Amino acid sequence: MSLSYISLKPETPLRLGGVKYKSQYLATEEFISGAIVRGTLAEYMILNGRKSEIKNLVKNIRFGFLYPSYHPDILSYPIPLTALTCKSDFGFKSNKGHGVFDQLIPLIAFKELEKQGAKFPVAFTFKCKECMGRMENINGYYIKDENYKIIRTERYTQTKTAINRIRKSAEEKMIYSVTAIKPKVYIENKPHDIFFNGKIYPESEIVDEVLKALNSIGIGSHTTRGYGKVSARRISVKEHEPLIKRIQSFNEKLSEVWSELLSIVKSDSLPKEPDATYFSVDLISPAILDDNGVPTLKLTIPVKGDKIEPILFSTKPVYLSGWSTSWTLPKPSTYGAAPGSTYVFKINKSLDDFTPVLERLEFEGIGKRRDEGYGEVKICSAFHMEVNQI
């Protein structure tokens, strides 16, 4: 199961769509969806008289989401919804905050021990180790280089006036504002390039066509007005560890935390370690899920005519919309599970028997409209192993 990685370096501000709350304000997202990349390829082929080739070329291809990064060859990921940071001084220690940690593994151990009759003397809560202050959720994107870092983009807003098509002059009461992503960010008062990195599944000659399209016509909206010019190329990425090793590391850390919590309870009747295999499924991109046709935020994994339910999950809804250039109409609007959503599953089966199911899940994704990048997942993310503030 092979795939390709691409990186975009903006040369001019990028407007990447988003919910249009008022007609005179054009907002932007912080990421490039797979649908935008695919639409750019389609536009390029139409301009070159190859419209008839589009359907066969993009068939069975998934265009992943591209997220902002400070490095041209390091992927960034949405911060899991289970991550916490100090409310008073938020952020990773490398970003001069009090630190960030993930509560998922402690939460699994706490809930599973409670199910087996453990009585804890205190509620499940956390305080900052640096200042003993309150912890709260943190959102955004992160990369792992030498240290974890939060990725922040900067925005650029330009106010324009509409032009009357007949008089070729400014239209009265038709001022509007366009917000876009700046091609550079400032880190410690120094300009720094921003990159958008992502995946295309599977490895295919279509990647070369995508790069030609991106370098030729740009990406996003308002490309004829100076926005969206990018420099795109293939990149080589050393991503995460093999799946089996990630699951093993996840369960080893769970056993450590399990033992620590067990020492608080001091009960001989409770199991000394977990009696099953646990794994997490994180959403890298929004997922459009349904349960027998009914929209839902709850992920289930189908296995041989049956389905596995999560033992716990952390998610929130996100509004999904878009515009179809070929239809010249809006795409159907819907709600999905937000990036960073985390689902935990428990299995008593042999891991060797279940691994092919999980490998296919990571490669193919979940839910609807996967060809547009929705439903991309990562199993047992290394971020969940960070149970101390980093």
UniProtKB/TrEMBL annotation:
Domain CRISPR type III-associated protein, first and last residues per copy: 141-231
Listed InterPro entries: CRISPR-assoc_protein_Cmr3 (IPR019117), CRISPR-assoc_RAMP_Csx10 (IPR013490), RAMP_III_fam (IPR005537)
The keyword Disulfide bond belongs to this UniProt entry's keyword annotation: no
Membrane spanning residue stretches: none
Keywords: Antiviral defense
GO biological process: defense response to virus
Protein name: CRISPR-associated RAMP protein Csx10
